[in-house]
């Protein structure tokens, strides 16, 4: 399983989330997943909401175009990004 998969105009990301980090950032590859650190705690869906907001800024898409397909309750997530306008360099290298 690859950390990033391109599906026509969409991206499918296999993520490992590190909540309560000092800052929001794409850390790099963690096993077969892309590690993302976020500042939000994993309480009452706050981490998922924060992750969606962070990814929408990184890929320049509306928050509604970020779909958490798997892993709502865990650190391991599969996220679909619909028609990203920008793909960061560190993600392009994984395609």
Automatic annotation (TrEMBL):
It comes from the Bacteria. One of its GO terms (cellular component) is cytoplasm. Belongs to the UPF0235 family. NCBIfam families: DUF167 family protein, PRK05090.1. This is UPF0235 protein FN961_23040. The lineage of its organism: Bacteria, Pseudomonadati, Pseudomonadota, Gammaproteobacteria, Alteromonadales.
